[in-house]
């Protein structure tokens, strides 16, 4: 049964609806943009206490380090006046140790918080991804979704440590150091500030470029995962077509794009690093010149100049941290905007306040179904698939949909499952609009076997028990026999616990179809939707499965889509679809005499009565005879 995504994942949409590119390219660095901070705080808010504790401790570690030059100054002055220096040296050593230990504890707490932010974001992303509407998965390819859930969330790790805490700590330390410098000598402070501000303005101009490069690098990684996911998903076809090179080229394009933009980030990053060093060196020379003159004129002591120069070099870590934090902030903002984009995708509709009566009751009767004037087109600018179709499927019995490829048969199933919403018209189950029903309950009442009968990696048991984890051995055996899997299971070395390989590659196509049918039967559905489940079965197994289907039509409404008319000729009613419209409804015999398209389908599949076949053969013979 369908679960419910946690409230946080389903209700809290990030507020900014602009596209991230628009935001990044608004010109200002992320650190100065309210939307980037809002995104950041949204992810960090649940950890605010730990962030405060860890940040506070590392700040304390930094502050205790700040007192060191003051003690160093008194050591120099004591040496000058030949006073004892032992107690000052002990205090200095104790300070070094305390600041190192306190700083380390603070750093550990912050790193733990970072990992927790990554974990909780990943959990939110996982919940969101598995509850996405089917239509939303058409918008972002699975490889890209995976890259956002893994690579982008990994980048968010530095949100706490580098981006937030170092911004705050760096700023506080910077202000504290500047105050201490100002207390020592305001002329030297102004000299330092002039040089540092000039450097800061130059660095800030490169930050928006950095964010956009970081985002493009992440998009390159996403392109790479999408290409690999595509290639690995059709591995045998790629090999059989000798398409390894072209697929590798597509994947490499993403890798190269990521490389190119990461290099840009690295280039800007290292430029900034070098710039800080140069700025401090220039400030050092300026302070040395101005300070030397002031010492010579007696305006300040030599001890104060040495302490001032020490503070100048103390500026390097917070300045570096601040600039690194700005850079990180931009990279993290790019990753967060991609994750937020994913979190903005629409999930399945919430359950109504008062859910409908339980439809999935195992003792419940077979369901009836009605389509009334249903008009549907897939999202995007594709053509209309259903042009106002109407039909009734009474409870119990078997109804089949036939018609040419692309007629809209499988789409009927997608609408019943509510994978998509029709633009107009109504779909009713037991007389109730399915949009009024609880989605989980609706799906619990339905057994659905998709066209490609997907089988997941794991054992046969895992595959059968998807959605039915507590099925008993007896129930499993029942469906294994019903789906004619008994012989296979008995032959396999570990029976039901045999691994079937990635996407069931260790099974034949027909075996995969039967596993998928058994999985659907295990749910004892009130409505069973089978899309082309006999296409890969041999005649013996097709007959057997047809018998199984006929056997359950007393307790279950069975709806099948099939190209092979042999599968559906015994159906209680057959719906013929063509070009998104219902052409005719009737039994095999009725349609043979009344519907030309059905007759044509039957003729091509040798399903006409003998006399009709002879007539068809004669027509074909005439046609061949007329050829030159
Ligand atoms: N996810 C989708 N997005 C856009 N168009 C789609 C999508 N799925 C199917 N279509 C289009 O909708 C139309 C009907 O598809 P549908 O799968 O219902 O046909 P069908 O009758 O089941 O065909 P077949 O017998 O070949 O399986 C087709 O033209 C198809 O290209």
Automatic annotation (TrEMBL):
Query: From what superkingdom does this record's organism come?
Result: Bacteria
Residue ranges of the region described as Disordered: 1-28
> What is the annotated signal peptide range for this record?
none
Q: Where is the ABC transmembrane type-1 domain?
A: 52-329
Q: Which residue ranges does UniProt annotate as crossing the membrane? A: 51-72, 84-113, 155-180, 186-207, 270-293, 305-327
Q: Name one Pfam family in it.
A: ABC_membrane
UniProt keyword annotation of Transmembrane present: yes
Q: Which SUPFAM superfamilies match?
A: ABC transporter transmembrane region, P-loop containing nucleoside triphosphate hydrolases
Please provide, alphabetically and separated by semicolons, the GO molecular function terms listed in this UniProt record: ATP binding
Task: Return the InterPro entries for the record.
Answer: AAA+_ATPase (IPR003593), ABC1_TM_dom (IPR011527), ABC1_TM_sf (IPR036640), ABC_transporter-like_ATP-bd (IPR003439), ABC_transporter-like_CS (IPR017871), P-loop_NTPase (IPR027417), Type_1_exporter (IPR039421)
Domain ABC transporter: from-to ranges: 369-604
Membrane topology type, per the record? Multi-pass membrane protein
Q: Taking the first listed entry, what is the main subcellular location of this protein, grouped into a coarse class?
A: membrane
Q: Which UniProt keywords apply?
A: ATP-binding, Membrane, Nucleotide-binding, Transmembrane, Transmembrane helix
Compositional bias (Basic and acidic residues):
13-26
User: Which compartments does it reside in?
Assistant: Cell membrane
Q: Does the keyword Disulfide bond apply?
A: no
Q: Can you say what this protein is called?
A: ABC transporter ATP-binding protein
The record lists the organism as Streptomyces flavofungini
Give the source lineage, highest ranks first: Bacteria, Bacillati, Actinomycetota, Actinomycetes, Kitasatosporales
